[in-house]
Amino acid sequence: MNLVTLLPFIAIIAAMFLMTRSAKKKQQQAAQMRDQMTPGTGVRTIGGMYATVKEIGDDTVTLEVAPGVHAIYAKNAIGAVLEDAEYNRIVHGIDDVTTDTPAVPDDASSLTEAPKTDLGKGEDEAPKLDLGKKDEPTGDDEPKDGKTDGEAGAK
């Protein structure tokens, strides 16, 4: 067999190997993340719900989704294990980070500048061009023979 005929098969096998390798890495990272869970840790489920871990079983996790409300989830349903500061910032709105960046105003009126006017302009400037709609046609556009496009015998 020629090397040129085997080259596409080798490329396909190499691509499949690389794809399965990256998928295995992602699975290992997810398993390590789930192993970091301890009771009291804040988590986000794959559905986007934030909760606190109460108990950890072999394949399940008991989460407190609201004060006094517990729900049992599969470990695979945990999308992310959050640090305490991040969990408190998202769920309780507690922001420990102080920044020196200015606050964004509620409206955009303070972000725009007033138009600058030049008072030193002379009177000899050309008038501004009006790009608005024109008034009704004056009738100069009518054909001389009186026929329009919609009538029989029109050109």
From TrEMBL:
<feature type="region of interest" description="Disordered">
    <location>
        <begin position="93"/>
        <end position="155"/>
    </location>
</feature>
<keyword id="KW-0812">Transmembrane</keyword>
<dbReference type="InterPro" id="IPR003849">
    <property type="entry name" value="Preprotein_translocase_YajC"/>
</dbReference>
<feature type="compositionally biased region" description="Basic and acidic residues">
    <location>
        <begin position="115"/>
        <end position="137"/>
    </location>
</feature>
<comment type="similarity">
    <text>Belongs to the YajC family.</text>
</comment>
<keyword id="KW-0472">Membrane</keyword>
<keyword id="KW-1003">Cell membrane</keyword>
<keyword id="KW-1133">Transmembrane helix</keyword>
<keyword id="KW-0811">Translocation</keyword>
<keyword id="KW-0813">Transport</keyword>
<dbReference type="Pfam" id="PF02699">
    <property type="entry name" value="YajC"/>
</dbReference>
<keyword id="KW-0653">Protein transport</keyword>
<feature type="compositionally biased region" description="Low complexity">
    <location>
        <begin position="99"/>
        <end position="108"/>
    </location>
</feature>
<feature type="compositionally biased region" description="Basic and acidic residues">
    <location>
        <begin position="144"/>
        <end position="155"/>
    </location>
</feature>
<protein>
    <submittedName>
        <fullName>Preprotein translocase subunit YajC</fullName>
    </submittedName>
</protein>
